[in-house]
């Protein structure tokens, strides 16, 4: 289905619409609602909402960079949840989607029942780091538009962050590649410019305020994000950290194991009367 928010038509899918508990999934950079299909195959205890972020999947790809700012994305998500009549929900986000989910929880904590962050960070701590990252992301954005989506995907799938995906079955690697190739180069470029790690604010100083249950999930082979999660655990008042034998994209490499850990965590919190 499509919902228009602030002039942008968002694509979303709703599964198990009659269930009371709601879990919203937010994909990473170059992802879409398709990213989560292996995770939700047997997930029948909750309403599932899958959303294509701005510039991704079947959601619009505006030409104006301002539409892609993290602040605007948070406002758009909240308006989406309002239209869907979702008062309290669990937010699951991966990588860029995890940064977005965390930012949303800081901006609208009253709507969040629980937060699940897969391979995610609160951003970069210093303005110097953010400026350096913005410069790199701008270069990448220019290359995406100039070189086209196929050239970009060929380079993107070879970055060290995804080394652990090289051993995946060929059929799965084809699916991942097709999902990336289906993206709009303008949408990806503007997503980097508007809500990349360098463009967003740092949320490290806000972690202590988040009193809702938070599950951090990282891959054992993803040392950078394992270390980030360990730092986040020192600041979050109500968090659990789980490590899976995988790389950065855990839901892709180990979808059943990822789903099991998340569902068990949410079941414990729901049964425990968290609200």
From TrEMBL:
Family annotation (Gene3D superfamilies): alpha/beta hydrolase
InterPro entries, A to Z: AB_hydrolase_1, AB_hydrolase_fold, SHCHC_synthase_MenH
Enzyme class: lyase
UniProt entry tagged with the keyword Amino-acid biosynthesis: no
Catalyzed chemical reaction(s): 5-enolpyruvoyl-6-hydroxy-2-succinyl-cyclohex-3-ene-1-carboxylate = (1R,6R)-6-hydroxy-2-succinyl-cyclohexa-2,4-diene-1-carboxylate + pyruvate
E.C. designation(s): 4.2.99.20
Single GO MF annotation: 2-succinyl-6-hydroxy-2,4-cyclohexadiene-1-carboxylate synthase activity
Record-linked HAMAP family: MenH
Subunit structure: Monomer.
Protein name per the record: Putative 2-succinyl-6-hydroxy-2,4-cyclohexadiene-1-carboxylate synthase
Organism: Planomicrobium stackebrandtii
């Amino acid at each position: 289905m499509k919902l228009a928010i602030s002039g942008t038509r968002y694509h979303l899918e709703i599964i198990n619409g009659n269930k009371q508990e709601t879990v919203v999934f937010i994909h990473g950079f170059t992802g879409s609602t398709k990213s989560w299909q292996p995770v939700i195959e047997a997930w029948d205890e909750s309403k599932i909402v899958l959303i294509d972020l701005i510039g991704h999947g079947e959601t619009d790809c505006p030409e104006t960079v301002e539409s892609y700012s993290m602040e605007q994305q948070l406002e758009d998500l909240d308006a989406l949840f309002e239209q869907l009549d979702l008062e309290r929900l669990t937010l699951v986000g991966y990588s860029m989607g995890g940064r977005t989910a965390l930012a949303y929880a800081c901006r609208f904590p009253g709507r969040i029942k629980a937060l699940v962050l897969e391979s995610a960070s609160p951003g970069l701590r210093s303005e110097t780091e953010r400026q350096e990252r913005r410069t790199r992301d701008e270069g990448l954005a220019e290359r995406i538009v100039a070189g086209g989506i196929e050239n970009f995907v060929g380079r993107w799938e070879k970055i060290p962050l995804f080394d652990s995906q090289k051993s995946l079955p060929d059929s799965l690697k084809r699916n991942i590649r097709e999902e990336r190739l289906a993206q709009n180069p303008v949408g990806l470029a503007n997503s980097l410019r508007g809500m990349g790690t360098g463009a967003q604010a740092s949320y490290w100083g806000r972690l202590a305020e988040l009193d809702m249950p938070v599950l951090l999930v990282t891959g054992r082979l993803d040392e950078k994000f394992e270390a980030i999660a360990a730092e986040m655990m020192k600041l979050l008042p109500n968090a659990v950290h789980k490590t899976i034998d995988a790389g950065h994209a855990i839901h892709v490499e180990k979808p059943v194991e990822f789903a099991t850990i998340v569902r068990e965590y949410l079941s414990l919190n729901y049964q425990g009367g968290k609200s």
